[in-house]
Design goal:
The protein is mostly helical. It contains nine helices and no strands.
């Protein structure tokens, strides 16, 4: 009875993890399609009287859509982490069923091997906790949410640059737009890191595993 429930939970977790990847792909595709079609429309109106009204209307819509997309992509990434780590815990149990089991259920990743000492890491100070540092650094740049955050920040910066340029000089507008891009990306990476760090230490996996099954 227990094994039936365990294998059923394993199947449900795999299905749910696949669903998060599918949703993330669909949302990212929707945003990129909206962005590309909008840029084409803006290009056709370049040099005409319709350029300024179109840009002032389309760019805010793209940026807002991008923010909604990024927030949901981070959510699906966190959900995917929790599910994959739960699957790893079940696989760890499978390896104890018989002496031959470890050869059929090998360690999926270094993160799965780290599941056991996770409670110890959770008790360390935040500044020295290896579990917290795992979700920080350059690895956060390679998530699906980052793929949308970068162009969305650039679009927001370009929109501000165009607006400031009409009111002031071009160099000043470029500086303001560049600052906005850097600030927007910084806020995104801070938010993403905060969301992943909110996952309990016992349910964390490594960033490499987070979207490895996508």
């Amino acid at each position: 009875m227990f094994m039936t429930a365990l294998t059923t939970e394993h199947f449900v977790l795999q299905t749910a993890a696949s669903t998060t990847v599918t949703e993330a792909s669909a949302r990212a595709t929707l945003y990129l399609m909206t962005l590309t079609s909008s840029l084409v429309a803006i290009g056709f109106t370049s040099g005409t009287e319709a350029f300024a009204p179109l840009v002032s209307t389309v760019i805010p819509v793209i940026v807002v859509l991008g923010i909604f997309t990024i927030v949901r992509l981070v959510d699906t990434g966190v959900e995917n982490v929790v599910m994959l780590t739960s699957i790893a815990r079940i696989r760890s149990f499978y390896r104890t069923l018989s002496p031959e089991a470890p050869s059929y259920f090998p360690l999926r990743s270094p993160g799965e091997a780290d599941d056991a000492p996770a409670p110890i890491a959770a008790n360390r100070p935040p500044s020295t906790s290896r579990a917290r540092r795992t979700w920080m650094g350059s690895k956060g740049m390679f998530t699906m949410a980052s793929m949308i955050a970068v162009p969305n920040s650039v679009v927001a910066g370009a929109g501000v640059t165009l607006g400031v340029t009409r009111l002031s000089s071009r160099p000043f507008g470029f500086v303001i737009g560049s600052i906005l891009v850097v600030v927007a990306l910084g806020i995104f990476y801070w938010y993403q890191s905060l969301r992943y760090q909110a996952v309990p230490a016992s349910q964390r996996s490594t960033p490499a595993v987070r979207e490895s099954r996508s």
